[in-house]
Amino acid sequence: MSEVISKASAAKQAATVLNRLTAQEKNEGLLLMADALIAEQDRILKANEEDLARGRDNGTSPSLLDRLRLTPARLQDIADAVKMIVGLPDPVGDLLESIERPNGLKIEKRRVPIGVIGIIYEARPNVTVDAATLCLKSGNSVVLRGGSAALSSNRSIISVLREALSRSAIPADSLQLIEDSGRGSVDEMLKLNGLLDVIIPRGGASLIQNVVQNATVPVIETGAGVCHTYVENTADYAMAEAISLNAKAQRPSVCNSMETLLLQESFARAHLAKLSETFREAKVELKGCDIVRELVAWANPATEQDFATEYNDYILNVKVVKDLDEALSHIARFGTKHSECIVTEDAINAERFLQEIDAAAVYHNASTRFTDGFEFGFGAEIGISTQKLHARGPMGLPALTSTKYRVVGTGQIRS
Amino acid sequence: MSEVISKASAAKQAATVLNRLTAQEKNEGLLLMADALIAEQDRILKANEEDLARGRDNGTSPSLLDRLRLTPARLQDIADAVKMIVGLPDPVGDLLESIERPNGLKIEKRRVPIGVIGIIYEARPNVTVDAATLCLKSGNSVVLRGGSAALSSNRSIISVLREALSRSAIPADSLQLIEDSGRGSVDEMLKLNGLLDVIIPRGGASLIQNVVQNATVPVIETGAGVCHTYVENTADYAMAEAISLNAKAQRPSVCNSMETLLLQESFARAHLAKLSETFREAKVELKGCDIVRELVAWANPATEQDFATEYNDYILNVKVVKDLDEALSHIARFGTKHSECIVTEDAINAERFLQEIDAAAVYHNASTRFTDGFEFGFGAEIGISTQKLHARGPMGLPALTSTKYRVVGTGQIRS
Question: Which family does it belong to (chains A, B) (predicted)?
């Protein structure tokens, strides 16, 4: 039996126990995990040092090494994040519908754990703890398959967490790490119908597309964001400047940052000279359509390909549009259904934008950077779904649950 | 451009219009569809006669021919079903969550159409109308790919329905029929990410498994039912007999009928002789474990394979179990997570069963035959989901929707 099958089978078995635990029993196990991360930090940091040394030998870039690095302070943050999840309400058991039928049948629809969740991700060891905690809190077993660059760290973390769980009601087998870092172990997980109930990929576009294209297990896609901000002539200039600068430059590397700014023509002619200076001060490179380049001498030309690109960087496309309809068409063509914003004082156009844009989150007069489980008040986030089924947008704990109909009768039969 | 791509593209374009229609505008279009099915029944029945003639020439079985056959009365039933769906509430726009954040952001989570739904199904022309109506009512375009045996009927029905829609606010292009009945058109649909948002297969196990195994488009699986009824020693005999007979024999061909009856030992020893006579009168063949065969001389032996089989027929496995734990293990091993029932007067065991069984619907003292959108009071059903994501169990109109977060601010930016 392969490592993947044997660990997924153990996780499935453990899920039947986990499914029955109370919120308190689960929280006690999670708190032991948080404490163990601190108590056993020397082991974890030593293992992390092995990954870092191997990374340096392999010529890994400083920014990737930084994402891989654990420190006592970072471990404390990770442990604190576990404790914060402990404080969130347990979605399992929530009553979603209650129906009493004319024949007397009482039907309840309640949240239940999904079962076994597979997570395929890249080299950030904090994801290991975060994903494990969210899955266990919502009553699910989890099979983690992290990147090879973090294998020593992940192995050490999972060993520490499983030891902690063995002193709790949560079965240690609820938490599994696939250590085979070959491509074959991912391929095997993608086809593991019957043992894995869902796979959530977390990482770059190529990792996600490999999962989406090849999995027969259901997938929750957390995808790319080519997000737009459309500013109308009626917009307040200061608000438009603040929102567009925030959406682009507050943290360009994330999926909810803006890639393209659409400006209605009079607004552009009145304000783009000034607005472009604001972006220049923030070290944002501009790529523009012809009118933009007429107004901003230093802007480079924007190609069709640019409009389709998620830069995740200090680069911004700017395009002048005639009206709302042209903005809607541009977004329908180039958007990735993630987060889209209109800045306007025109309530009718705002409502049309909110209604007609097909995206997980649509904004009127606020930065797209708010598309985030914490900013939405969920207290946690397993990712931002860009698909339309099951969960869309920031996913908190309820996104990690399924439902069950409980039907109680007194002998009813169907006629 | 292939037929599939060109029709799916037209459906996607139409979905942007459909998305904005009011419930009343959609209902007006659906009522025109219902009327047209009656007004144009001669055309439809003539086309149906072509399918029937071809079927007879090909040696199609009488029962399949009967499923294919349309009559004025059946068309009236189909039109009445459309009108019933018109009477159901429109789920689009429903407010699911309302959040006001400390920074003043107002966040609403509302139901929106999914977009374009692909339906792959077999040779029942009533499914053509039913699926089309449910998708349009919930604001979705639909691309139908029916079986070749019903192609003339489906082509005629879709032509009538599209003519009706052309007199309404619903774009006729919301409704598409793939006429290419080769396997290639199914394969093409399964990979049509970006044009189809979801595929719902409706039909036998091999059709569904082909879709699940090969689609890269998200799928809602409507699957097999190996359903159990477990009767404890404390059960009321008359209730246990009525429920188990109903679950097996009221309509054996459907997914929510029972395939295996589990009896606690004392109940079996006290009642199986009598109960088996009831099944014999209903022409149900019994297959049993050793104890069952000791108690019922005419029962055949039940193999492991039998316990895993969805008979959809007048055949029933009967097995004696020691207690609830053995019943739970058997169901965990052989069940398909569809519908499972316990008949007992023991409230504690009933609760354990409802809690621990992993299935779309779990029953205490009622027949599994109630797992059905109409019986649950949803007024419609696009299928019974046996997967855990998005929708589980009977799917009414809300299962055909996604959600969107609408965020309204006054200039908020993220710090």
Answer: Belongs to the gamma-glutamyl phosphate reductase family.
Q: Search chain A and give the residue with CA nearest B395.
A: A405
Instruction: Give which of A405, A408, A410, A415 to mutate to test B binding, by max B Cβ within 10 Å.
Output: A405
Catalogue the E-assigned strands of B53-103: 95-100
Q: Cα angle at A134 between A129 and A137, to 5 degrees?
A: 115
Q: Which residues contact A132 (CB under 8 A, 6 or more apart)?
A: A33, A142, A144, A158, A161, A175
In the stretch 244-263 of chain A, residues with CB closer than 8 A to chain B read 245-246, 250
Q: For each successive 10 residues of chain B (415 residues), what is the average pLDDT?
A: 97 96 98 98 98 96 92 97 97 97 98 98 90 97 96 97 98 97 94 95 88 91 91 98 98 95 98 98 98 97 97 96 98 96 98 96 98 94 92 96 98 96
Take residue A299 and report the two structure tokens written for it. 């802007």
- Please state, in angstroms and rounded to a whole number, the distance separating the CA atoms of residues A273 and B106: 32
- Contact with chain A for residue B282, Cβ under 8 A: no
Contact B414 A367 (CB under 8 A): yes
Residue A359 at interface with chain B, using a CB cutoff of 8 Å: yes
Q: What's the mean pLDDT when you consider all of chain A?
A: 96
- The amino acid sitting at A195 is L
pLDDT given at position B141: 98
ipTM above 0.90, yes or no: yes
> Do the chains contact at A388 and B197, CB–CB below 8 Å?
yes
Which chain B residues touch A234 with a CB distance below 8 Å? none
Both tokens of residue A45? 């940091």
A-chain CB neighbours of B411 within 8 Å are 236, 238-239, 242-243, 365-366
B227-370 topology per CATH: Aldehyde Dehydrogenase; Chain A, domain 2 (3.40.309)
pLDDT tens-digit readout, A312-363: 999 999 999 999 999 999 999 999 999 999 999 999 999 999 999 999 999 9
Domain limits, CATH 3.40.309.10, in chain A: 227-370
Hey, is A108 helix, strand or coil? strand
What fold is seen in the domain A3-223+391-408?
A: Aldehyde Dehydrogenase; Chain A, domain 1 (3.40.605)
DSSP A145-182: E--GGGHHHHHHHHHHHHHHHTTSSS-GGGEEE----S
Distances (CA, A) of B9 to A331, A338, B173: 17, 21, 9
